[in-house]
UniProtKB/TrEMBL annotation:
This is Phenylalanine--tRNA ligase beta subunit. SUPFAM superfamilies: Anticodon-binding domain of PheRS, Class II aaRS and biotin synthetases, Nucleic acid-binding proteins, PheT/TilS domain, Putative DNA-binding domain. Its EC number is 6.1.1.20. Its cofactor is Mg(2+). PROSITE patterns: B5 (PS51483), FDX_ACB (PS51447), TRBD (PS50886).
Length: 800
């Protein structure tokens, strides 16, 4: 919304500079996005009177003009404008003057004739071409009335002005009008505001004899009214009105059309003016359009309507598309003499749908979409009638032809000073708060401690007590909110939680191992939502997904990590090591919120050691991936156990299920060759852990022990067992029987083949014994070692 400071002063004068006004308005919630100063870069611009015009002897398109600019003698100016003529009052830039764009006016000779100044068009003094009146679009501007030569031209054009551009939020539709802005300024500066004149000298004839109004769809059109103005004279609107429209970004047309646009800007109430003699009947019927019904709008375009559109009809055919655009055959033209002025309330949603569907966005539709003030509907129509009477010589018929109900103009809300002060921190009395509301134009009654505030319809953003409290804070001043230090009772030092500390440790560990963190979407396609899922649970799908590829909440982090790896490999980055900490989602049935579980997942492919100067190149394999997972467990002082398993999408012989304290919490394995091939990947290894389950294990503090002072003893054993017996099971038996001197075990060799029966394998395990308090004796070690061997043999192992 463009707010002219010159125009605003008609209603309220704050007595401050426009810069201070813009600053104050911005600080109270309406941002002044820009300031347009029409006096900027302009110097020595006056009104001139063209005394005579002669053709230039040496140029067909140039004229020599003698121009009175208020000095002792007229000056000679050579002008090429096609519409320049004697007897005109024009804009003149004097010698020594300046125009926008850095243009300096100097004495010059044009084809041998001296020229002392320049007769200007509106475009040359900074007015945009799209708002210049058609009559002056290709020539100089001519004042419609006499102006004293030598008068400051910007003052005569009402351009000695600065215009504020409001960047409004959708809730502040009240500031889409000059009157609404005046209420705001009056409240900010605690001054009175004047309303525009609306009272006409009505004739004895009644508008009800000329017109009738019927509403067929009151749920979409709560109220519709019309007044009739007879015998209008179509002519240019007064210069002050044209200037104000231009500054608001609207091109002046003629007095009748300009008055409609002027009142729109003044009250924020869109009006429409029909040529009464071309409506086609004496009745106006407001209804829903018929499906496939057509009408021709003001832009000479035939529109095909749908049954959700609202139309104004003459009882038979549409004459206007409600709230959007009028019809071409009932528009105001140069021959119009009788005018019907429409004021109405239309359903905002319907107007929005119609304007979007037809791509017809206008000043009117934008205001109807945001909701208009019911209190201004009839007042705006009356204002238009007054202006038509004053500037178009119209005769205003008495009475208003209306149908429907405007409803209440106010919304009462009860509030107390205690509530306001407690919320904001002020110490205002009830009288001070009441004064703020009344300054905003809200009638307020006080009953004991309760204030009943009648919020006018123009402020549709105020519906609850908290909205009123915000108004008090805005008007009294956000800067006046008292500042105080917080009261510290029990003060705790800032520190990371246990989970935060562990998470940082995990990330440092993984990144130290060469992995990079990835962040992927929580949504996947429905076909991949259950890929690699650790639980068989329902999935959660979006009702209105943006695409099929992002329609369902994931149950594993791996599908998108695989996509990320494939994306990198396709772009020649073949060595990919990624990890992600993120949430997965498991459904609990219809109507129930899903369970959100945090997972830790990773993917590795390509070479682990890629630089030959660091050593031999080494491709990533299962044990490198397992080493990364073991490193995480070691840093968290946890012990994972592994056993062979199968997961859909992973290689059936190269997959291990990971357990913690007897509960399965994840897996590690190689992608199934078919999955890898589908994604153009070579051998690729992945892991996925239930991170929430890991974090729930209480570890406590890690106590470091001194290096033992006593030597240890190492014994190696070779066991022949069935091929399907996992090494972890053998190690568990050893640890269960190794008493307190068994420190660790290590599988250092596994052999299958020649010299062994089919279905058998040999597993070589190194056992490390140590007593931290005393020197081990051979007798004690042998006693424990024999116990271990007996336990192994009891489980079917043969000592080789």
């Amino acid at each position: 919304m463009l707010i002219s400071n010159e125009w605003l002063k008609d209603y309220v004068d704050a007595g401050v500079s426009v810069e201070d006004l813009a600053e104050r308005i911005t600080r109270t919630g309406i941002e002044v996005d820009d300031m347009v100063d029409y006096t900027k870069d302009i110097k020595n611009l006056v009104v001139g009177y063209v005394q005579s015009k002669e053709k230039h002897p040496d140029a067909d398109k140039l004229n020599i003009c003698q121009v009175d600019i208020g000095e002792e003698e007229a000056v000679q100016i050579v002008c090429g404008a096609p519409n320049v003529d004697a007897g005109q009052h024009v804009i003149v830039a004097k010698v020594g003057g300046r125009l926008p764009g850095g243009i300096k006016i100097k004495r010059a000779k044009l084809r041998g004739e001296r020229s002392e100044g320049m007769i200007c068009s509106l475009q040359e003094i900074g007015i945009s071409s799209n708002v210049v009146p058609k009559a002056y679009e290709n020539g100089i501007f001519v004042f419609p009335t006499e102006v004293e030569p030598g008068t400051d031209a910007l003052t005569a054009l009402y351009l000695n002005d600065q215009v504020m551009e409001f960047d409004l939020t959708p809730n502040r539709a009240d500031a889409l009008s000059m009157v609404g802005t005046a209420y705001e300024v009056a409240a900010l500066y605690q001054t009175e505001m004047a309303k525009p004149e609306t009272q006409s000298n009505e004739t004895s004839e009644s508008a009800s004899n000329e017109l009738s109004v019927t509403i067929d769809n009151p749920e979409k059109v709560p109220y519709y009214s019309a007044r009739v103005v007879k015998n209008v004279t179509i002519a240019p609107s007064p210069i002050w009105m044209q200037a104000r429209l231009i500054k608001a970004g609207i091109r002046p047309i003629n007095n009748v059309v300009d008055i409609s646009n002027y009142v729109l800007l003044e009250y924020g109430q869109p009006l429409h003016m029909f040529d009464q003699d071309h409506i086609g009947s004496k009745e106006i019927v407001v209804r829903q359009a018929k499906d496939k019904e057509t009408m021709s709008t003001l832009d000479n375009t035939e529109r095909t309507l749908v049954d959700t559109d609202i139309v104004i009809s003459n009882g038979k055919e549409p004459i206007a598309l409600a709230g959007v655009m009028g019809g071409d055959f009932s528009e105001v033209t140069e021959q119009t003499t009788n005018v019907v002025v429409e004021g109405a309330i239309f359903d905002p949603v319907s107007i929005r749908h119609t304007s979007r569907r037809l791509n017809l966005r206008s000043e009117s539709s934008s205001r109807f979409e945001k909701g208009i003030a019911t209190e201004f509907v009839d007042e705006a129509v009356d204002r238009a009638c007054y202006l038509l009477q004053t500037y178009a010589s119209g005769e205003v018929l008495q009475d208003r032809v209306a149908s429907g109900d405007l409803g209440s103009f106010v919304t009462p809300i009860d509030i107390t000073a205690e509530k306001v002060n407690k919320t904001i921190g002020f110490e205002l009395s009830s009288d001070e708060i009441k004064a703020i509301f009344e300054q905003l134009g809200f009638e307020t009654q006080q009953n004991g401690k309760t204030l009943t505030v009648n919020v006018p319809s123009r402020r549709k953003d105020i519906t609850i007590k908290e909205d009123l409290i915000e108004e008090v804070a805005r008007i009294y001043g956000y800067d006046e909110i008292p500042s105080s230090l917080p009261v510290f009772g029990e003060v705790t030092s800032g520190e990371l939680t246990d989970r935060q500390h562990k998470t940082r440790t995990v990330k440092e560990t993984l990144e130290g191992a060469g992995l990079n963190q990835a962040i992927t979407y929580s949504l996947v396609s429905k076909d991949h939502a259950k890929d690699f899922a650790l639980q068989e649970r329902p999935t959660i799908s979006l009702l209105m997904p943006m695409s099929e590829a992002h329609s369902t909440l994931r149950q594993s982090l791996l599908p998108h990590l695989i996509e990320a790896a494939a994306y990198n490999v396709a772009r020649k980055n073949k060595d990919v090591r990624l990890y992600e900490v993120g949430r997965v989602f498991f459904g609990n049935g219809e109507g129930e919120l899903p369970d959100e579980v945090e997972y830790l997942s990773g993917i590795l492919t390509g070479e682990y050691v890629v630089n030959t100067w660091q050593g031999k190149k080494e491709e990533i394999d299962f044990f490198i991936a397992k080493g990364v997972v073991d490193r995480v467990a070691e840093k968290l002082n946890l012990e994972f156990s592994y056993k062979a398993g199968e997961i859909n999408g992973l290689h059936p012989g190269r997959t291990a299920i990971i357990s913690l304290e007897g509960k399965e919490i994840g897996f590690i394995g190689e992608l199934h060759p078919q999955v890898a091939a589908d994604n153009d990947l070579k051998r690729t290894y992945v892991f996925e852990l239930n991170y929430d389950a890991i974090m729930q294990v209480a570890v406590g503090y890690i106590n470091y022990e001194p290096i033992p002072r006593f030597p240890g003893v190492t014994r190696d054993i070779a066991l022949e067992v069935n091929s399907d017996v996992p090494s972890s099971e053998l190690k568990q038996i050893i640890h269960d029987n190794g008493e307190d001197i068994l420190q660790s075990t290590l599988v250092f060799d596994v052999y299958e083949g020649e010299h062994l029966e089919e279905g058998k394998k040999s597993v070589a395990i190194r056992l490390n014994y140590l007593d931290t308090e005393d020197t081990l004796t051979d007798e004690r070690v042998s006693k424990v070692h024999d116990k271990v061997l007996e336990a192994l043999q009891a489980q079917g192992a043969t000592i080789r």
